[in-house]
Structure formats: structure tokens, C-alpha cells
Design brief:
By secondary structure, the protein is an all-alpha fold. It has helices at residues 2-8, 12-39, 47-53, 64-90, 94-97, 104-129, 135-155, 161-195, 198-211, 219-236, 240-261, 277-308. Helix 6 (104-129) packs across helix 11 (240-261). InterPro entries: Rce1/LyrA-like_dom. GO terms for molecular function: endopeptidase activity.
Length: 319
């Protein structure tokens, strides 16, 4: 109770700024430094050679696994351990965020929602990639985008099934847990506390979530994805729901890329072309229907739980 009262005395903007600053240091500095030492046994050279390769890792095939490990430790430290401490300091026990029941019906609905929404989002992906910015900004944005694209291509050109599984952990499992802890578990909750408007909280946290990736030619589709995760959390009151959705989105992409490289499927998931409008419209209807069913499912569960225990603390149902 004292922690909760203490949190109420700290302005939401302060909590958000502390969170973003601590996450940045943990993800960009401390975590990768720790990961560097764990990655040394997986590099076919000396410490000095690996340090030199970090200046231009894409030219060294032996840097792929070390880069994955450094990124993984960055995510683990900066996006999971640091946010857990902040949650404990400003809110409540981290366990409270994960104590809600996971219903298989909800998981199946989320899987369908995420996959179908990919078709809808393809329109925004294609549109956003063709947006023009003022010349100075556009030059910088394109250079940044190309750098990230080259790094992604390097990391996701899998030489073995083991590398693909490592990528699933680093690209899907850890970010799903970490990014949802930060953007839904902390930032969305703080924005709601500050504005008392859940829709404002969801969309601003989604915009921050997208902006933090520094990929301007993917800003809108990623923001829409963040908003989707935000509403899944709001309607369910269960942080596992956006985590599962996030994992399915990233994990599906990684596995699809691997299968395409193996020649097992013909669909190139990296293709930025929009799906046919007929498919997009149909998918939009299906997505809307599934979201409505998901929302009603949790409204019914909430009603049942409340009637079973009128003294239940339902604060967790409002992110």
C-alpha cells in the first residue's frame, strides 16, 4: 500500500521519463556490455578481434551469434529487469501483472487477430514506405532505415535451425515480454493515470513504442500494432495478452523468413507490397469481429468473477 501511495505522489511524466532513460541505458549500454562477455566463447577469434569487428559487424560472418547474444542481454537487462524494478518501485509487485488467468480461447483469438491484422497492416506498410519528408530529414531517415535493414538482413539470413531458434528467442520472446512491460505495463498505465482517458493513453504509448524503434518508414504500421496491443491489454486487464500477441507477430515473421529461405514457402514476408484490396477489406471485417468477440469475452469473464466474489479487487482490470 505504501508503494502505491508513493507512486501516486510522483507525476506520470516523471515516471515515464525515468523509465525511458533507464531503459535506454540498460538496452544500449549496460546490457550489451554484459552480453559482450557472454558472447566471447561464440566468436572464432580473440577479444581484440571481436572488439574490432563491432565497428563493422556486417563484414564478419562470425559476429552473427555474438550480436544476437548482445542484443538479447540488452533486451533482458534494459527491457525486462530495469522495468521490473521500476514497476516494483512505483506501482506494485510485478507478479500482480501476471497473476491473471490465461484462457485458451483468448490465446486462439489473439493468434487469429494478429495474423489477419497483418493483411490489413500491409496497406499502411506500403503507404508509409512511400511517404516523403523534407530533404534533410528524408536523407537521414533513409540512411538510418538502410542501416537497420542491412543489419536485419544480416541477422535473419539463417545458416541453421539453431540460429533461427536463437532469433526467435532474441527477436520474439524477449522483446514481447520486455516491450510490453515498458509500453503497456508502465507507460500506458502512467498516461492513463495522467490523462484519465484510456484511448489517449493507448495511442500515445503506441506512438512512443513506434518512435523508439527509429524506423520512420515503418512508424504508422508499428504504431497501429502498438495500439492493438494496448487495447488487448485494456480489454483483458491481463498483460499476458499483449505479450502473446507481440510474440506471435514477431515469431511468425522470423519463422516465415526461415521457411522462405529454405524454399518451404513461396511467400516473402519482407515484401512491402500491400495485399489486394479485397483481401484487406475482408481481413479488416474479420479483425473487427474478432476484436469485438475478444472484448465481450473478457466483459463476460469480469462479470462472472465479480458475481463470484463481490469483494474482489478489480483494479487490475483497468491497465
Amino acid at each position: 500500500m505504501e508503494q502505491e501511495i508513493g507512486a501516486r505522489n510522483v507525476h506520470p511524466a516523471v515516471v515515464i521519463l525515468i523509465t525511458l532513460g533507464a531503459v535506454f541505458l540498460g538496452f544500449q549500454v549496460v546490457g550489451p556490455m554484459i552480453g559482450f562477455f557472454f558472447a566471447l566463447p561464440f566468436y572464432p577469434g580473440s577479444v581484440i578481434e571481436m572488439t574490432e569487428s563491432l565497428k563493422n559487424p556486417l563484414s564478419d560472418p562470425g559476429m552473427k551469434v555474438p550480436l544476437f547474444l548482445m542484443q538479447g542481454f540488452g533486451t533482458l537487462f534494459g527491457l525486462i529487469l530495469v522495468p521490473m524494478y521500476i514497476l516494483k518501485k512505483f506501482h506494485r509487485s510485478v507478479a500482480d501483472l501476471f497473476k491473471e488467468t490465461i484462457y485458451m480461447q483468448a490465446v486462439l483469438m489473439i493468434g487469429a487477430i494478429v495474423i489477419v491484422f497483418m493483411i490489413v497492416n500491409s496497406v499502411f506498410i506500403e503507404w508509409n514506405q512511400n511517404v516523403t519528408f523534407p530533404s534533410g530529414i528524408e536523407k537521414w531517415a533513409k540512411a538510418t532505415e538502410e542501416q537497420l535493414a542491412e543489419l536485419t538482413k544480416y541477422l535473419t539470413k539463417f545458416d541453421s535451425t539453431g540460429q533461427m531458434l536463437l532469433a526467435v528467442v532474441v527477436i520474439a520472446v524477449l522483446p514481447a515480454i520486455g516491450e510490453e512491460l515498458v509500453f503497456r505495463g508502465i507507460i500506458q498505465r502512467e498516461l492513463f493515470r495522467g490523462t484519465n482517458n484510456i484511448h489517449v493513453a493507448i495511442w500515445i504509448s503506441a506512438a512512443i513504442f513506434s518512435a523508439i524503434h527509429i524506423q520512420f518508414y515503418g512508424f504508422v504500421p508499428r504504431m497501429l500494432l502498438g495500439a492493438l496491443f494496448g487495447y488487448l491489454y485494456y480489454w483483458s486487464g491481463n498483460l499476458w495478452m499483449p505479450i502473446i500477441a507481440h510474440f506471435i507477430n514477431n515469431g511468425f515473421t522470423v519463422v516465415a523468413m526461415y521457411l522462405y529461405q529454405q524454399g518451404s514457402v513461396k511467400m516473402d514476408i519482407e515484401n512491402a507490397e500491400a495485399a489486394p484490396w479485397s483481401a484487406v477489406l475482408f481481413s479488416a471485417v474479420i479483425t473487427t469481429a474478432l476484436l469485438y468477440i475478444f472484448k465481450k469475452f473478457y466483459e463476460k469473464r469480469r462479470s462472472v468473477n465479480f458475481s463470484d466474489n463481490t469483494n474482489e479487487d478489480n483494479s487490475t482490470l483497468i491497465p
